[in-house]
């Protein structure tokens, strides 16, 4: 009788044909403290019940052992292996604070990233650029980060300006260039040079490049969007005189991008306009824009857009965003948002803060909340002060029993359902009109 096949015979090889010597960084590799970056653990009331104690020292040693292996694999001959190692390092850097570990190996990491960006293909270059962002986020605005940027800055600029490179690689490098410059640059000339590099990219969207048939080209749109958003981020840290120059240069041209066929470009242009108006009014209380009536008409049309040829999801998103943008331009108003992380709260009350938060959230993903709690650099950017240290006793008092949480969630769900049912009921009393 033949022996049955073993169930785990192919387990050594990862999904998608990943080489067996690369085991991606997983949630299990992060210590118990990284739970705070998950949405389900963003509030103190949702902390899990008491569990078995974790040997943090052993967990940290195991994590560092794996990370050393990933760093070594960034030099592998196989492109798939290098990319998988870069992605695993990105996952680890976004979910943990690894300052000491990285400090000892920053030159090795920088050399690996530089080599992957120079010699790799599109996907590998994107992964390397993303890792460079996270490397600078981990190191903060110190001398070590400046050294990293001095090495990687010229390489990133070369890829961004290289018309033969893939659009995806150029897009990732443009984002990385803006974020790294935002973090590390104290040299004003380097700041201006980086902004000029990004300007040379997104200003091409003003001309609405056309192909041989005269149809607007969307091939480079994603690159233009990334360059515009990275440039906008750097504008928030420019001196007042430079801000005025940039506003005069771009405020009359940006509205042309509101007619772009790409939804993300329309939103990026609209949010940049709102931010420019905010900065202009901060620098000059009597700021006056000549074409205000025409601009508000465009914004109002986008805020109430009902074109049938657009997807419902896109229209819903566009209307929501442009209602806020219209209020910002017309009424100088901003809808304050609250972000919860652990026991703390942060209020986003202006477009500059929103732009900065959205940028770092994009690269940190679900690790944003954890970094807001523990990353000194990010806490300094958002003026949160030093990290809040909570001992085990305090955390225990903040816990709510699981049964009580269940009752609270059930009551909230029922109340929400009733409220929505009233609004959706066509027979609801809508009042009399005279």
UniProtKB/TrEMBL annotation:
Keywords: Developmental protein, Differentiation
Summary of subunit composition and partner proteins: Interacts with PSIP1/LEDGF.
Residue stretches making up the Interferon-related developmental regulator N-terminal domain: 34-330
InterPro entries named among the record's database cross-references: ARM-like, ARM-type_fold, IFRD, Interferon-rel_develop_reg_C, Interferon-rel_develop_reg_N
Ranges annotated as biased composition (Acidic residues): 50-59
SUPFAM superfamilies: ARM repeat (SSF48371)
Top-level taxon of the source organism: Eukaryota
Gene Ontology cellular-component terms listed: nucleus
Amino acid composition bias (Basic residues), ranges on this chain: 1-10
Region listing for Disordered, in residue ranges: 1-59
GO biological process assignments: cell differentiation
Residues annotated as domain Interferon-related developmental regulator C-terminal: 375-428
Organism of provenance: Hemiprocne comata
UniProt similarity note: Belongs to the IFRD family.
Protein's name according to its UniProt entry: Interferon-related developmental regulator 1
């Amino acid at each position: 009788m033949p022996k049955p096949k073993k169930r785990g015979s192919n387990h050594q090889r990862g999904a998608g044909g990943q080489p067996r010597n690369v085991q991606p960084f997983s949630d299990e590799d992060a210590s118990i403290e990284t739970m705070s970056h998950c949405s389900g653990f963003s509030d103190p009331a949702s902390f899990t019940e008491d569990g078995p104690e974790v040997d943090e020292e052993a967990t940290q040693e195991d994590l560092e052992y794996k990370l050393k292996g990933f760093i070594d694999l960034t030099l592998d001959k196989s492109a798939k292996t290098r990319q998988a190692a870069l992605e695993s390092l990105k996952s680890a850097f976004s979910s943990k604070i690894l300052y000491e570990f990285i400090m000892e190996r920053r030159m090795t990491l920088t050399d690996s990233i530089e080599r992957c960006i120079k010699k790799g293909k599109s996907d590998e270059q994107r992964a390397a650029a993303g890792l460079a962002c996270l490397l600078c986020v981990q190191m903060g605005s110190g001398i070590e980060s400046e050294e990293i940027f001095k090495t990687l800055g010229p390489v990133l600029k070369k890829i961004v300006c290289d018309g033969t490179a893939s659009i995806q690689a150029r897009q990732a490098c443009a984002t990385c260039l803006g974020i790294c410059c935002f973090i590390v640059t104290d040299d004003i000339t380097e700041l201006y040079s980086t902004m000029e590099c990004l300007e040379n990219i997104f200003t091409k969207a003003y001309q609405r490049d056309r192909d041989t048939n005269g149809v607007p080209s969307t091939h480079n749109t994603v690159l233009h969007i990334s360059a515009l958003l990275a440039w906008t981020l750097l504008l928030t840290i420019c001196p007042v005189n430079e801000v005025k120059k940039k506003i005069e240069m771009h405020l009359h041209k940006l509205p042309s991008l509101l007619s772009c066929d790409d939804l993300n470009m329309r939103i990026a242009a609209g949010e940049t306009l709102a931010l420019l108006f905010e900065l202009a009014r901060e620098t000059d209380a009597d700021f006056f824009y000549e074409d205000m009536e025409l601009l508000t008409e465009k914004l109002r049309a986008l805020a109430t857009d009902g074109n049938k040829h657009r997807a419902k999801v896109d229209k819903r998103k566009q209307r929501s965003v442009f209602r806020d943008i219209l209020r910002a331009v017309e009424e100088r108003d901003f809808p304050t948002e609250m972000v919860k992380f652990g026991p703390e709260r942060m209020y986003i009350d202006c477009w500059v803060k929103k732009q900065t938060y959205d940028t770092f959230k994009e690269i940190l993903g679900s690790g944003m909340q954890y970094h807001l709690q523990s990353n000194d650099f990010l806490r300094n950017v958002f003026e949160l002060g030093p990290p809040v240290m909570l001992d085990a006793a305090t955390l225990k008092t903040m816990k709510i029993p699981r049964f009580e949480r269940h009752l609270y969630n059930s009551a909230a769900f029922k109340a929400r359902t009733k409220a929505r049912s009233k609004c959706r009921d066509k027979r609801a009393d809508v009042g009399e009109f005279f």
